[in-house]
Amino acid sequence: MTTFLGMPGLPVATERGTLRGPDTFPVAARKALGDTQLRKNLGHATSTIRAKRARVVGELDDWEELRAAGAAIKADVMARLPELLVQLEENVTARGGHVHWARDADEANRIVLDLVRAAGTPDDPVTSVVKVKSMATQEIGLNEALAEAGIAAVETDLAELIVQLSDDTPSHILVPAIHRNRAEIRQIFLDHMPDVDPGLTDEPRVLAMAARAYLRRTFLAARVAVSGANFAIAETGTLAVVESEGNGRMCLTLPQTLVTVMGIEKLLPTWRDLEVFLQLLPRSSTGERMNPYTSMWTGAPRTSGGTADGAPDGPQDLHLVLLDNGRTATLADEAGRQALHCIRCSACLNVCPVYERTGGHAYGSVYPGPIGAVLTPQLAGMHGHGADAPAGGDPVDTLPYASSLCGACFDACPVRIDIPSMLVHLRAKHVETAQAQRRVPGLPASAENAAMSAAAWVMQDAGRFSFAEKGLQLGRLLARDGRIRSLPPPLSAWTTSRDVPAPPAETFRQWWARTRGDRS
Amino acid sequence: MTTSARDEVLGRIRTALGRTGTEAPQPSPVPRDYRTSLGEEPGAPGLLDLLVDRLVDYKATVHRCAPDAVGATVAAALAERGARRLAAPSGLPAGWLAGADVETVTDGATPDGGTLSVATLDAVDGVVTGCAVAVAQTGTIVLDSSPVCGRRALTLVPDYHLIVVRADQVVGSVPEALPRLDPDRPLTWVSGPSATSDIELDRVEGVHGPRTLVVVLVEG
Ligand code: SF4
Question: Which end of chain B is less crowded, N or C, counting CB atoms within 10 A of the terminal residue's CB?
């Protein structure tokens, strides 16, 4: 597979339908905007979390210093990735764990499937696994791959359970069922949860208790768990999972076999680095000073001291699968590799005026929102109308345009990922490809190609580019005042019209004309 | 011969980084200008008040007592709960349960470790343990699988967890806690009872982990 992004020869993610939706963003966004219940649910949930986050971030007078440290640590990780991964592998292995490497989604799925099978016996095969919420396993489509092999993957995170029971797809990286309100969740439980109390109310506490009762037996009998990891410490071989409900602890503690699937970028060099990230992550994600539970384990965990010194504490058959799947292609682009710094806190989704209106499904990727708009095109590649592209053009190509460049995501990001600049960079790269492809005889000149020339126009001239930055400030004001009713410009062109979307070229020019008076 | 996935992924990373030879870059300096301490000694009165405030905020119940009153305080808390049968780790100080009218089952008292089955843990009324460190600023208590904390399942399966925290175990912030912990031990950082924010992003206490968290803070 070829792609214009990254270094030639570095392959993008294998296509499992988890990064590339059927529709372009404008088409999907327009559908989403017509769903008033969805917009209400999202508006309520994101405003709740924004207020909580602002309060706990405001409690720390060294927040900016923590962000700066977080950004520097992640940049250091990328620069030393080969050495740090080897160090992690040595430390995990030395403490009784097993490390596996996967080039892509298919390889990772095969590895996990083999491990699950190996955990059973011919007389007593493993037919189900419990899962802790993990973006990496969603990205590789692990549940589907296991199901094809006759193994049921039971999601144990409440929001994931809601999504799984209703045969839905996640719409947020932290709260996958954010698009559902309590009444809808109650109905999903009544319809799909075996043995549920028919008198169930829509009180969140009652719904949480129903999930506890439903999953309890499954946890206590589970033999194999599959997890992701929030952090891996190269220096010590320690893996960490940050969670709230205790479902993570159940999965990480009770089964005999634990398989952790982790992107190669999730590393931290030293134990000390946790002092930065354990402050940044909970405050940014759930708006808590600390999440209820964080589990850390190093190799096959053992108790220490006392009569039971060295006795097993949790799964002793322990595996770590290190996943590439387009990450090296992302790393190859110096201006895009910052997307790999992401710690999946979801703060950028919660503050994004576009996400708040369209929800996550419109992005067609397990990574929605601002970070999804820069990560997905790099992991999956942008194929334009080339030979690798789906008929009608690649929906992924529209993601870098799914933003008003208002800058709220950068302000919220705990590791200072400059998402707006990366969006502009990816738009420029996309336009280069589109132009190159237009020169190839036989390829249709599409409306999308024409639309994208807007970005080329901005990118070709330094003065216009600085104007684009000016526009960034304008969008910021609009978002903060909350005065935008549909999508902010230039996306409004996509969402307010039922006709063929107006080429953003005009929108940019209008925008320029409108704001020119401020330039002096 | 085909290249192993390991060699190929490592090779791709080197290519992506534009590495040509076997150069091994040195760690880049990290600006650590954030607070690495709240500036108070472990157990300082201000830290204890802060810890209590944060624990209560996340719906834990807190009892403060003097060192000679631990047994009585634990006993009163267990009586209030109506707990009859309790699990305990092998290294629980004898005095902590001395005043309580309960039957105790002890985990990990033999070298083969886990003597209590998951079914047993599921049937007890609660568990009493100590801890390794507490972080005042975040209301966090860290368990480290040592004899006074027990193995992880012990503090997970029962629905009620009472933790005795000594004042000298209370530090100000996360950066002060990490150097006191051994990464080779399995660690569980607990901040309040289990909770979820998955329904409309509102926090609701009590999901899969213990639904009740009681902290006895021993001062002086
Ligand atoms: S990009 Fe930043 S704000 Fe967005 S999810 Fe990642 S770490 Fe959080």
Answer: N
Distance CA B105, CA B90 (A): 10
pLDDT-above-90 percentage for chain B: 80
Ligand 1 — pocket residues by CB below 6 A? A 284, 342-348, 371, 412-415, 417
CATH number at residue B99: 3.40.50.10420
What gap in Å lies between CA A505 and CA A513, rounded to an integer? 12
Please tell me which of the candidates A233, A314, A324 has its beta carbon nearest to residue B186: A314
Domain count, chain B: 1
In 3D, which of A135, A131, A212 has the Cα closest to residue A176?
A135
| CATH 3.40.50.10420 location in chain A | 38-326
Structural Rg of chain A based on CA atoms:
23
Which protein residue has the closest C-alpha to ligand 1 atom 6? A342
- Looking at every residue in chain A, the average pLDDT score rounds to 84
Highest mean pLDDT among A169-183, B12-26, B59-73: B59-73
Rounded distance between C-alpha atoms, residue A345 and residue A54, angstroms: 14
In this prediction the ipTM stands at 0.95
Nearest CA in chain A to B193: A292
Query: How many Å from the N-terminal Cα to the C-terminal Cα in chain B?
Result: 68
A90 touching B (Cβ < 8 Å): no
Closest residue in B to A312 (Cα) is B113
CA atoms within 13 A on the CB side of A93: 9
Q: What is the pLDDT of residues A433-458, one digit of tens each?
A: 777 776 554 444 444 444 444 444 44
Cα A230 to ligand 1 centroid, rounded to whole Å? 13
Q: Is A209 on the interface with B (CB under 8 A)?
A: yes
* Residue B64 belongs to domain spanning: 40-218
Ligand 1 mean position, distance from CA A347 (Å)? 6
* Portions of chain A given CATH number 1.10.1060: 330-438
Shortest CA gap B103–chain A (Å):
21
Q: What is the pLDDT of residues A160-216, one digit of tens each?
A: 999 999 999 888 888 888 889 999 999 999 999 988 888 999 999 899 999 899 999
Mean pLDDT for the stretch of residues A406-415: 96
Give residue A369 CA to ligand 1 midpoint distance, Å: 10
Chain B interface, mutation test: which of A313, A334, A356, most B Cβ atoms within 10 Å? A313
Q: Tell me if B182 is assigned to some domain.
A: yes
Yes or no: say if A236 and A296 are a contact pair by the CB < 8 Å rule: no
Closest residue of B to A70, CA-based? B30
pLDDT digits (tens, 9 = 90+) for A9-47: 799 988 778 999 888 898 898 888 888 888 888 998 899
Residue A250 contacts B where some CB pair is shorter than 8 Å: yes
Which A residues, 423 through 452, put their C-beta within 8 Å of a C-beta on chain B?
none
Task: Please give the model's pTM, rounded to 2 decimal places.
Answer: 0.89
Task: Write down the pLDDT at residue A488.
Answer: 55
- Fold of the CATH domain A38-326: Rossmann fold (3.40.50)
Per-residue confidence (pLDDT) for residue A469, from 0 to 100: 44
Average pLDDT of span B4-16: 96
| Higher pLDDT among residues A481 and A64, named by residue | A64
State the pLDDT at residue A58.
96
Average the pLDDT over B69-81 and give the result. 97
Return the pLDDT at B143: 97
CATH class of A330-438: mainly alpha
Q: Is B6 in contact with A101 (Cβ distance < 8 A)? A: yes
Residue B24 distance to chain A (closest CA, Å): 7
Q: How many CB pairs under 8 A join A and B?
A: 311
Per-residue pLDDT for A333 more than 90? yes
Question: What's CA A400's distance to the chain center, in Å?
Answer: 15
